What does this fold into?
Amino acid sequence: MLEIRNLHATVEGREILNGLDLSIGPGEVHAIMGPNGSGKSTLANVIAGREGYIVTEGEVLFDGKNLLEMEPETRACEGLFLAFQYPVEIPGVANLYFLKSAVNAVRKYRGESLVDAMDFWDLVHERMELVKMDESMLKRSVNEGFSGGEKKRNEVFQMAVLQPRFAVLDETDSGLDIDALRVVADGVNALRSPERGFLVITHYQRLLDYIVPDYVHVLVNGRIVRSGDKGLALELEQQGYALYNEEPGRARRATA
Amino acid sequence: MNAAPVAQNPFRQQFKAFVASRREPDTITRRRREGFDRFIALGWPTHHQEAWRFTDLSALAQIDLQRPTNVPIDANVLPTLNAPAHRLSFVNGCFAPALSQLRGLPNQAIIASLGQALLTHPDWIEPYLEQLPGLSQHPFAALNAAFWEDGAFLHLPRAAVVEAPIHLIFYSIGDHIGVYPRLLLVLDEGAQATVVVEYRGEGRYLNAPVAELQLGAGAVLNYHQIQEESPQAFHLGGIRIHQQRDSQMNSHLVSFGGQLARVDLEALLDGEHIHSMLNGLSVVDHTQVSDHHLWVDHADPYGSSEQLFKSVLNGKARTVFDGMIHVRQHAQKTEARQLNRNLLLSRQAQANSNPRLEILADDVKCGHGSSTGLLDPDALFYLRARGIPVEQARALLVQAFAQDSLNRISLTPLRERLANSLAHYLALGCIEEQ
It folds into this structure.
């Protein structure tokens, strides 16, 4: 459902993605691992359409449609979701109001009527339990004063309410203690389905103990140097990224 | 052009005729003369004067301001509070009994037309009128002292509490007229009131009101001033505040209208344990100018004051925030906070911010800050990444920024009404309340 072909992207004139290929089908969970600066977050931001990330070559197709031509909001309405590495605090916009605006924006895009207030409330309550979120967080401003764990939980909560067809999780595990990690992972696992695809971006193997991927890819210097099953993550955990950093050429040959 | 002589000469003739037409106590006439002399002495302000550096009055100077005439207006052009209220309406500075309604008041409490009270009970007025320091360098306050005809008079005796809001509406209508309404609010020891002052109108006029607010020991005044003058109008208002020990002033200055709107406020915190909160919101577009000059003077220990002013600017609009917190040497343990935040929706808009602290005491907690910027691109992207279209996302963020000021208003019907007006002035279409 997500096809990335020969993707090159620059940020502030520096080439970060350097010919990345990736194909993710419905129901699949792919993990991308890599050292700092390998381009993991750039990939997430390019997929979501953030300003300042310039694609210089290649294409990204979402169910056959050219994703790169779409505005960020259109991508979201088409069913794409990015769980942010650093969720933004938005003072003065209540979490619940924000979420309802998002749900209605997606419904409007699909030509559906505005969400029924009671239905929405039921859905919100059900999903809140999924990520063990306190009701008071709904009334608070989006992410304002939230702890790191609360922010990440809020991301997964939004995902659970919006029910995208494809989700990118950008280092959702960073800054989480083991309990929070488990809650977040449970939330993600509950949303796994044969129709839904996931791209899980992480620096550490730990998250993949809880969200078990179907495929693991190693990203180094802006391209995927190796792909495998979940066993690859364990291997990386033991060996680190040093192998790829020191001799990227050899790593590339190994995947060939 | 040299505006001064052109502007002053007609005032001189006008003043002569005006004073001759009045029948009022000599003391009042004397105060008018003093006011007029002060106006002549101060002269028409120019941008060479520091206090008027950012306030361009050249468009106003070209208008030959006349005395207003009586114009009947329709009741439904006046704002309502959607709640039981004491209501006094003034059209072109004169009391309009047909558009007013007073309810039951505590014993000995007075809410009245200042003009009428001056005729029937000058002894009510004389001890309080023009008795406060402040605004001595303000030419338009001086002009008001000379030309005021009517306005609202409120006097609450000791411990009197007026529950229902006191709604004072000043409607100006006409072109090339000068209107000089006056407010005199006197709260004796322990009295409490909630006042909503609204300035509205149609036409190209000058409204130069002066408000004098006196809070006795332990008095509480919730003061709201909502400026929605006509888009061609000039609003040059002055507010003098005198607070005695343990009193509490919560004021909200909301500025939406006018082509040029300026408020000069001077507050003397004259006693211990006084609290003064000045909350402000300006929303301006096109070539509008909204200008606030605040001077809060802590004269005694244990006082606290806050100045929180926000503005949203679009088009080529401009705002000025010039806030001063002055802490006298004797005013130890003062806590004061000053914050000015400006949101620019256009790169042609301009916010001038001048937050100032002048602290002569050595044991105080005071802080100030100022920020001016465009919408946060990260916040905008976050909303868009959830499917919210860019225009709606922008509206949501602007609304949130401004709503923060309105949320400090505890008078619910007013706050809700202003939230709706806010959406209108921000030209964001209808935004449902959160």
About this structure: Residues 8-270 of chain B form one domain. Chain B has a mean pLDDT of 93.
